[in-house]
Amino acid sequence: MKVYVITKKCCQCGSCAAFCENKAIEWLDHEYAIVQELCDGCGTCLEYCPIDDAIEEKVSEPA
Q: Three-state SS across the chain?
């Protein structure tokens, strides 16, 4: 399964959160974060993020 994380390169514009159909991206402690339990790995956040490498795909560990 694909897992995404928001890096420190994020400009805090909120584009990713606005287009996330699962509402998996939340504003926490003055920055956006992906709530892994809500993320289905669709990659929509990558499509709408204006900053290269602000969202990275990580390999998830098998359960």
A: CEEEEECCCCCCCCHHHHHCCCCCEEEECCEEEECCCCCCCCCHHHHHCCCCCCEEEEECCCC
